[in-house]
Amino acid sequence: MAKQKRVRCFGHSPLNLGPHYTVSWDDVWLRWVSKPGKTIQRLGPCLCSLTDAMAEIDENTWVLTHAPDLVAKYGREYYQEELNSARDLVRRIKDEGLICVAKSTDDRLPILYTSARVIDRAEAERMLAWWLSVAYGVKRPKFQWKKVVKEDVIWPWSSSAYHPD
Question: What's the whole-model pTM score?
Answer without folding.
Answer: 0.86
